[in-house]
């Protein structure tokens, strides 16, 4: 009996996951999706979730609500069996203008605590909390494709470097702006950008001078993998890419993301060890047999019905 209740609970988790209430089916119109005030979460295609930064009138500046909502949103997406890939976009004129300079100033500039130690500890807690806002993108087992148009400033670069695939429009530009507002970028850029861009010298130049990098250089340096003429074309490209990923076995796709990230941060020998342990269970999936058979029969992965994960 306990087993039956338990398996029904697992089978139906898509019905009780509160996050699913936030998904607006097949629509990219409208404002933020409750319970979010800064994000619009939609399902533009089967198994694809689109998360749009949604404060266009403020150029998607990241206010206090945003820093928490991203964590809630991606924690739900990570557990949502109806989602196999995520596309992150920005509403309005630009992708994002970075941290909300009006809303966040108090938090950072006037930290509180009974003495220096406690004030420092509170500030540390705050920085760790903000780091988690983008680390959730990396921790999410579903691949995250980010599509950037116009400006991507400051914390925007922290965000995109935690994504798996970066696309942009011809008019996009990127700016590691933190030195201009008197701080060392502390929520991911300094840690992840050097892993994304091959040239350490270029990373240092961008972070130390805050000069803008335009789309052509973003492509040639490896920050983005594709540049599109405009947002509409980019969105078609992003959706095509997302649907390609979503059509593959979720066991294979999520295992690939997790092992790629593990290998980035470990030696080849450690990565191989991790991979062997990973696949000692994952190779037992039905997906291998189904995929291999489809491949032999020259069928597209889109024709293979994989179980939800
Ligand atoms: C522990 C935390 C760690 C995190 C650190 C993160 C640091 C950073 O992100 S540093 C980067 C901070 N951002 C900026 O310096 C960018 C400021 N904005 C701009 O340069 C321009 O807005 C932009 C080029 C992005 C777009 O220009 P555009 O002409 O299209 O728009 P504007 O007329 O300038 O702005 C329209 C309204 O949006 C408000 N706004 C824009 N950016 C921000 C922002 N970052 N914070 C708050 N509000 C912003 C702007 O005030 C306008 O509002 P309103 O006057 O009410 O219409």
From TrEMBL:
InterPro entries tied to this protein: ClpP/crotonase-like_dom_sf, Ech1-like, Enoyl-CoA_hydra/iso, Enoyl-CoA_hydra_C
Protein's GO biological process: fatty acid beta-oxidation
Alphabetized UniProt keyword annotations: Acetylation, Fatty acid metabolism, Isomerase, Lipid metabolism, Peroxisome
Associated pathway: Lipid metabolism; fatty acid beta-oxidation
Localization per record: Peroxisome
Primary subcellular site in the record, as a coarse category: other
Reaction(s) the record says it catalyses: (3E,5Z)-octadienoyl-CoA = (2E,4E)-octadienoyl-CoA; (3E,5Z,8Z,11Z,14Z)-eicosapentaenoyl-CoA = (2E,4E,8Z,11Z,14Z)-eicosapentaenoyl-CoA
CDD domains (UniProt xref): crotonase-like
A GO CC term attached to the entry: mitochondrion
An MF annotation (GO) of this entry: delta(3,5)-delta(2,4)-dienoyl-CoA isomerase activity
Role: Isomerization of 3-trans,5-cis-dienoyl-CoA to 2-trans,4-trans-dienoyl-CoA.
Family: Belongs to the enoyl-CoA hydratase/isomerase family.
Name of the protein described by the UniProt record: Delta(3,5)-Delta(2,4)-dienoyl-CoA isomerase, mitochondrial
Source organism per UniProt: Paramormyrops kingsleyae
């Amino acid at each position: 009996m306990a087993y039956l209740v338990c398996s029904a609970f697992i089978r139906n988790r898509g019905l009780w996951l509160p996050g699913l209430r936030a998904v607006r089916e097949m629509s990219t119109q409208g404002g933020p999706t409750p319970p979010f005030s800064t994000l619009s979460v939609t399902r533009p295609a089967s198994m694809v979730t689109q998360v749009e930064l949604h404060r266009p009138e403020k150029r998607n500046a990241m206010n206090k609500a945003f820093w928490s909502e991203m964590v809630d949103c991606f924690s739900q997406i990570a557990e949502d069996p109806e989602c196999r890939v995520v596309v992150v976009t920005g509403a309005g004129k630009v992708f994002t203008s970075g941290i909300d300079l009006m809303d966040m100033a108090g938090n950072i500039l006037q930290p509180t605590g009974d003495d220096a130690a406690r004030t420092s500890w509170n500030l540390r807690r705050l920085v760790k909390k903000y780091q988690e806002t983008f680390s959730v993108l990396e921790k999410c087992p579903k691949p995250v494709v980010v599509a950037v148009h116009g400006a991507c400033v400051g914390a925007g670069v922290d965000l995109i470097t935690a994504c798996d695939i970066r696309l942009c429009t011809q008019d996009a530009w990127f700016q590691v702006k933190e030195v201009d507002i008197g701080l060392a970028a502390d929520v991911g850029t300094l840690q992840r950008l050097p892993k994304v861009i091959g040239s350490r010298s270029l990373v240092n130049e961008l972070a130390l001078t805050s000069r803008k990098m335009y789309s052509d250089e973003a492509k040639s340096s490896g920050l983005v993998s594709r540049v599109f003429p405009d947002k509409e074309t980019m969105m078609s490209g992003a959706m095509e890419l997302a649907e390609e990923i979503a059509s593959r076995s979720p066991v294979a796709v999520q295992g690939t993301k997790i092992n790629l990230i593990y290998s980035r941060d470990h030696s080849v020998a450690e990565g191989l060890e991790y991979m062997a342990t990973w696949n000692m269970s994952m190779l037992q999936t039905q997906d291998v047999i189904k995929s291999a058979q489809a491949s032999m029969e020259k069928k597209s992965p889109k024709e293979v019905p994989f179980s939800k994960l």
